[in-house]
Design goal:
By secondary structure, the protein is an alpha+beta fold. The protein has one domain. Helix content is about 40%, strand content about 20%. The strands form 3 sheets. Strands 5-6-7-8 form a 4-stranded antiparallel sheet, with helices on both faces. Strand 6 and strand 7 form a beta hairpin. It is elongated. The chain starts with a helix and ends in a 5-residue tail after the last helix.
Length: about 240
């Protein structure tokens, strides 16, 4: 296990034995690492709070869905490593870039059973995927024709470097990027955001989401015609 992998595991609370002792010693000797760990854990707590708030808010009725039976604490650290975003050092500028896409401690699954209000994120085979109203928005909503009153605002639709179709989105308390894989929208970036007072959340998203898109996008974002054609093809490559 590399130092980078060990640090991710430490942040997720999954490190044991000699690796735990080694990483704790590094953190104890480096104030920058101490701050980094604290910031990542604060992000996890903020995301938990954001999802709790979103699940308590009313959402419009959508197609019938089956809610997940139980929520799980999950991490996207493995996904981050698979995207080959390697750190060249342990210093703050590189960790700042990673912070935008590290999601630790997010609660997936449903918060309500037998009602029309269900969770928007679930874990499937180790990946976070959009469900219910968020899946509906990503699947059926065109950025070129969406209502100004839509609870989820779609930003850009584009292809990533692997050819998959991805979409940025923003809701009142969360925003991020999801990419189509099979019938699922896998979450590649998920960020908490403050409750908007004047509807600002209906825009495409923050500079952090824009940075995620910039790192992932291959070519140009789709125009209205290309977006409509992609929808007709069920967002498949």
């Amino acid at each position: 296990m590399t130092d980078e992998e060990a640090l991710f595991a430490y942040i997720d609370g999954e490190l044991e034995g000699e690796d735990l002792i080694r990483i704790e010693a590094k953190i104890a000797a480096d104030p920058v690492l101490q701050k980094t760990v604290a910031e990542h854990r604060a992000l996890a707590a903020e995301l938990q709070c954001a999802f709790s708030t979103i699940l308590d808010a009313p959402v419009p009725p959508l197609r019938p869905v089956t809610a997940a039976a139980d929520g799980k604490v999950v991490s996207l650290a493995d996904e981050r490593s698979r995207r080959d975003r390697r750190l060249v050092s342990w210093r703050a500028p590189h960790w700042a870039a990673m912070a935008a896409t590290l999601v630790a401690g997010v609660i997936g699954g449903a918060a309500f059973s037998g009602s029309d209000r269900t969770g928007s994120v679930a874990e499937r085979e180790g990946q976070l995927v959009a469900t219910n109203w968020l899946d509906d928005a990503l699947t059926t909503q065109l950025a070129s024709a969406q209502s100004s009153e839509a609870p989820v605002r779609i930003g850009l639709t584009f292809r990533n470097h692997g050819g998959a179709i991805c979409r940025s989105f923003a809701a009142e308390n969360v925003e991020g990027v999801a990419c189509r894989k099979g019938k699922d929208w896998q979450l590649e970036g998920l960020l908490s955001r403050e409750r908007a007072k004047t509807g600002d959340y209906r825009l495409a998203g923050s500079s952090a989401t824009a940075a995620i898109v910039d790192n992932m996008i291959s070519g140009e974002a789709m125009d209205a015609h290309q977006e409509k054609a992609a929808e007709a093809a069920d967002w498949q490559p």
